[in-house]
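User: Reviewer 2 asked us to show a designed sequence for the structure in our supplementary figure. I'm pasting the structure tokens here. Could you produce the per-position amino acids so we can include them in the response letter?
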């Protein structure tokens, strides 16, 4: 054998194992990191959607829509599977968080939690209004060049008058616990669970222990379902983003790019405020983002804070060190009433459409937007697309044509994904804040994260 052949053989032998080891290391990393799998699924889904959609033009619009619907099927099944366990998990978590914790500090914890959510929702809506005034995105868009699809418009709801408002408040409270738990109304479900949890505090420990153990088993079963379903999250993300990108494309986004940039800038400011609070409670921003990347990525891909709630619970307990009783109270409540990202988006969108149509709403109109956006966001469920329904009511109240919603419908899903990230981040920061300032004394060590495969 010549020296040249020997050198080549040695090179192949040395290069082969290194290449194989690198590939195995990469595959092992992908298997152990759900967030990395989700990122890969997001990138591939966007690329596939751009290729078959109007940007790439590989398929006709009809065929692209057909393929997109089939590709999105795993994502739709994923959301349904998560929603399948959300209600029992919310009920079990809220009741256990109240009845199984330190009852002397329950009132303090509730005050701090609701106060945190209310203050930051008002701040978020004000940020949206301020950015829309400074950037003035509505004056940069020619209304005549935007196609308005009247069939896609959500009809605005009728605002209750002063005389009807007490009836509206009364309708929020549940009247039948069993009917409430199967209704899907998350606000009523949380209220019913709170009532049951508070009632259990007044009975002896021996009487409530069997129900608490039953609820703990329900919680464990729900998390077991989530553990299995999350294995398919990358495939679900791929399909959902592929369908969205194939329908919208890049060209449709360019016409409202300034509006999108305004909303995204506001969400970044809101996220920075949340990170500042996290740092104040003892978690540096980078550490917080590393610890919470999994629920934040899933929130971005699913556009549903309710669907991500099981992962959010395990993250704040297992990675952020929040006491389990605090997490079980704050996270389900935050999923229902903490919609800071939604309030910010509605503030920007309402003022943006007022600028597009040349409607001068004045200072009173801006205050009305903040009040309505805050109240509507607190009462809205954590499901995809609910923000656009609430926006129609706000537009009707300030004299802006509700038909303007068609201008932003094309990019609403993408912004919905981003504002859900802000909402979920706010839930997790709130749990840290309440855990510190409500002075919840831990009676036991925090439970480890249930989904061990995905929390490494």
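Assistant: Here is a per-position design you can include in the supplement:
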């Amino acid at each position: 054998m010549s020296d040249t052949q020997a050198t080549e053989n040695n090179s192949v032998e040395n290069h082969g194992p290194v290449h194989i080891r690198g590939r195995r290391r990469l595959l092992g990393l992908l298997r152990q990191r759900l967030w990395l799998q989700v990122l890969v699924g997001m990138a591939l889904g966007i690329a596939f959607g751009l290729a078959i959609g109007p940007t790439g033009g590989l398929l006709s619009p009809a065929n692209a829509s057909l393929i997109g619907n089939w590709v999105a099927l795993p994502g739709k099944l994923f959301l349904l599977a998560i929603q399948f366990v959300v209600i029992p998990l919310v009920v079990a978590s809220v009741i256990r968080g109240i009845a199984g914790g330190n009852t002397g500090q329950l009132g303090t914890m509730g005050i701090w939690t609701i106060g945190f959510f209310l203050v930051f929702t008002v701040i978020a809506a004000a940020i949206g209004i301020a950015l829309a005034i400074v950037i003035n995105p509505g004056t940069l868009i020619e209304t005549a060049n935007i196609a308005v699809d009247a069939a896609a418009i959500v009809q605005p709801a009728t605002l209750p008058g002063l005389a009807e408002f007490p009836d509206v408040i009364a309708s929020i409270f549940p009247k039948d616990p069993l009917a409430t738990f199967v209704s899907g109304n998350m606000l009523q479900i949380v209220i019913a669970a709170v009532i049951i949890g508070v009632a259990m505090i007044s009975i002896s420990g021996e009487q409530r222990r069997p129900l608490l153990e039953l609820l703990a088993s329900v919680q464990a079963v729900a998390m077991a379902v989530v553990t299995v379903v999350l294995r398919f999250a990358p495939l679900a993300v791929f399909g959902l983003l592929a369908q969205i990108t194939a329908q919208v494309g890049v060209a449709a986004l360019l016409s409202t790019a300034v509006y999108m940039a305004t909303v995204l800038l506001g969400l970044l400011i809101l996220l920075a405020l949340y990170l500042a609070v996290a740092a104040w409670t003892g978690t540096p921003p980078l550490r917080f983002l590393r610890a919470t990347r999994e629920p934040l990525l899933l929130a971005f891909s699913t556009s549903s804070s309710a669907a991500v709630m099981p992962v959010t619970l395990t993250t704040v307990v297992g990675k952020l060190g929040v006491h389990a009783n605090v997490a079980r109270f704050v996270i389900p409540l935050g999923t229902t009433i903490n919609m800071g990202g939604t309030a910010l988006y509605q503030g920007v969108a309402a003022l943006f459409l007022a600028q597009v149509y040349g409607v001068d709403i004045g200072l009173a109109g801006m205050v009305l937007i903040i009040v309505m956006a805050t109240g509507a966001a607190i009462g809205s469920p954590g499901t995809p697309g609910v923000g656009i329904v609430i926006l129609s009511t706000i537009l009707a109240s300030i004299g802006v044509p509700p038909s303007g919603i068609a201008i932003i419908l094309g990019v609403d899903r993408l912004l919905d994904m981003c504002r859900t990230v802000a909402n979920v981040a706010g839930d997790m920061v709130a749990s840290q804040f309440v855990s510190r300032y409500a002075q919840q004394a831990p009676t036991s060590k925090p439970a480890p994260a249930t989904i061990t495969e995905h929390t490494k």
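For the response letter, you might also mention the following. The longest helix spans residues 405-437. The chain has 19 helices and no strands.
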